[in-house]
Every structure is written in structure tokens, then in C-alpha cells.
């Protein structure tokens, strides 16, 4: 039985059981997914397939520094980006 078939069957079976059992399954699934989300960090890759960071620790450190920069006001607003983007085409056609 494929995973898709199993998920469909679980949905069907849940419709047939009492509410307390559905609540227990719900709690189990929420706990499992919450644990999975916390324990799995994926390092992003560039368009050539190379990892952008050497380790999860390096990635977290970089992201923390980016958050600190944003909090310090080091960012470009949408309006500023729109103005800047108008010059991009002019630079490349000159």
C-alpha cells in the first residue's frame, strides 16, 4: 500500500472512530510534527547545487546576524528597492 493510499485510508478510518480517539491521534500527530520541525534544519543551496553554509551552526549564526542588522535598521524599504531597480536596466544597456 502506498503512502498516499495509507493517508486516504487513515482519513476514512478517522471518520469512523469516536471523538476521544480522534483527539488522541491529533495530539500524537501534532507532537510528532512539532518535534520534526525543531530537529530538522536544512542548509540552503545555491543555483549550482553548492551548500551556502558549511554547517547548521554557521547558518544559524549568519541568520542571527542578519536579524540583528534588520533590528538595527540596516535594510532597504520596498520604495527604495523600486527606485533602485529603475536604474538596473539603464546600467546594463549603457
Write the topology of this structure:
Blueprint: H1 3-14, H2 19-39, H3 56-71, H4 78-93
Describe the structure.
- The chain is an all-alpha fold and about 90 residues long.
- It has two domains: about 40 residues, no CATH class; about 55 residues, no CATH class.
- Helix content is about 70%, strand content about 0%.
- The chain contains four helices and no strands.
- The protein is elongated, with a radius of gyration of 23 Å.
- It starts with a helix and ends with a helix.
- What is the strand tally? 0
Q: What's the main sheet like?
A: none
Shape: elongated
Query: How many structural domains?
Result: 2
Number of helices: 4
**Overall pLDDT level:** 87
The percent range for strand residues is: under 5%
User: What level of helicity do the residues show?
Assistant: 55-70%
Distance between the termini: 61 Å
| pLDDT < 50 stretches | none
Give a brief description.
69% of the residues lie in helices and 0% in strands. With 94 residues, the chain is an all-alpha fold.
